[in-house]
Amino acid sequence: MEVLWTVPLLLLIPLLMWTSSTFVFYFKKCFYVAYMMCLALLAIPLCVLKSGGRDVENMRIIRSLVRHVKYFLGLRFEVSGWEHLQTEGPYVIISNHQSSLDVLGLMEILPDRCTMIAKKELVYAGTVGLVCWLGGIVFINRKKTSDAKSVMTDAAKTMLDEQIRLWVFPEGTRNQRGDLLPFKKGAFHLAVQAQVPVIPIVFSSYSNFYLRKEKQFNSGNSSGLCSCFNVFLCVRRSSHAEVLSLLRRHQIEDPPKDRHEGDDVRRHHIPLRQILQRDALGLLEHLQLRNPEQRADAALNTNH
Ligand SMILES: CCCCCCCCCCCCCCCCC(=O)SCCNC(=O)CCNC(=O)[C@H](O)C(C)(C)COP(=O)(O)OP(=O)(O)OC[C@H]1O[C@@H](n2cnc3c(N)ncnc32)[C@H](O)[C@@H]1OP(=O)(O)O
Ligand SMILES: CCCCCCCC/C=C\CCCCCCCC(=O)OC[C@@H](O)COP(=O)(O)O
């Protein structure tokens, strides 16, 4: 009797996948969350066995477990400038943040000994939260700036003591408008305090396959299953000299607005945050170019 019910139900899923893009959206999202939760369940004992607890080295396990998930969602990543992450020692990575799908691109290129800064709510996300904790993710309370600042100051020390790289989403929240929200300052304070370079990474806009508000998670055609989308990840060259000299001048803050004698300073003073924001926005626009040759040119031009 039960079998009689199951068969039409199982047939209903492909039918809905075929006919309703909203169903495809929820199906893929639910699959993603459920599958990541299961992978996390697998990762927990592996991490504990490898490191005995919370350790950035666990990110190697997490990275290798997550890398195949893209195939199920019809996503592929095309990376340019990967070699720029092969810089010695600690650094801060900044990147745009569109969706929880960013985790897939992040794991695609995550360098060794690199973990992230995340909102503290993530630690309560079941098995995924526990895995984030085991992977050494630094949790901050965005509602309490003073707490977040002191956690990040501690993180700057840890970066140096333990040779750790940190990935920060300086927009501070997800943004799907195809641009960048004004960068928060934490990532830049972190880099100044630790005196390490900042490496910007830009994910191309997901808008051609994923629109949260419109409930679209396409695969490019109505069958919803077979074709795949490329996400372009562009890593900008980390120019140590340039970034470090800006860091040393502590140009994180905007110049004071009310000082007349500061006019000159104001004219020449472009905070590092704004320089990198402008660069990242430029890259984001370039990555929208669909033609691979144009994109290659764009990457060359930005790798000055
Ligand atoms: C195998 C299975 C696996 C399963 C899954 C596994 C998943 C694994 C990994 C997944 C990880 C993904 C993680 C994704 C998570 C993404 C997020 O959570 S994004 C949200 C959280 N992140 C951030 O918010 C980072 C960016 N925010 C900041 O840097 C902010 O600056 C802030 C520190 C939070 C403070 O915010 P706010 O007060 O709103 O804004 P500001 O204007 O920037 O700062 C105010 C003030 O404070 C000064 N300041 C800031 N930071 C510092 C500092 N570190 N030291 C000193 N001073 C600081 C700043 O200068 C401002 O002062 P001013 O006088 O106005 O200049
Ligand atoms: C309260 C818990 C938070 C989310 C829990 C979702 C559980 C998801 C399970 C599997 C997905 C894979 C790992 C996802 C990790 C990424 C989390 C994320 O992207 O959080 C959003 C945060 O950057 C910004 O939050 P807001 O846009 O300010 O809101």
From TrEMBL:
SUPFAM superfamilies, alphabetized: Glycerol-3-phosphate (1)-acyltransferase
CDD domains (alphabetical): LPLAT_AGPAT-like
Pfam families associated with the record: Acyltransferase
Keywords carried by this UniProt record: Acyltransferase, Lipid biosynthesis, Lipid metabolism, Membrane, Phospholipid biosynthesis, Phospholipid metabolism, Transferase, Transmembrane, Transmembrane helix
Cited InterPro entries: AGP_acyltrans, Plipid/glycerol_acylTrfase
Any single GO CC term annotated in Swiss-Prot or TrEMBL for this entry: membrane
Any one GO biological process: phosphatidic acid biosynthetic process
Catalytic activity annotation: 1-(6Z,9Z,12Z-octadecatrienoyl)-sn-glycero-3-phosphate + (9Z)-octadecenoyl-CoA = (6Z,9Z,12Z)-octadecatrienoyl-2-(9Z)-octadecenoyl-sn-glycero-3-phosphate + CoA; 1-hexadecanoyl-sn-glycero-3-phosphate + (9Z)-octadecenoyl-CoA = 1-hexadecanoyl-2-(9Z-octadecenoyl)-sn-glycero-3-phosphate + CoA; 1-eicosanoyl-sn-glycero-3-phosphate + (9Z)-octadecenoyl-CoA = 1-eicosanoyl-2-(9Z)-octadecenoyl-sn-glycero-3-phosphate + CoA; 1-(9Z,12Z,15Z)-octadecatrienoyl-sn-glycero-3-phosphate + (9Z)-octadecenoyl-CoA = 1-(9Z,12Z,15Z)-octadecatrienoyl-2-(9Z)-octadecenoyl-sn-glycero-3-phosphate + CoA
Enzyme Commission (EC) number: 2.3.1.51
Domain Phospholipid/glycerol acyltransferase: 91-206
Signal peptide feature range: none
NCBIfam families the record matches: AGP_acyltrn
Annotated PANTHER family: 1-ACYL-SN-GLYCEROL-3-PHOSPHATE ACYLTRANSFERASE
Name the UniProt record assigns to this protein: 1-acyl-sn-glycerol-3-phosphate acyltransferase
Organism annotation: Labrus bergylta (ballan wrasse)
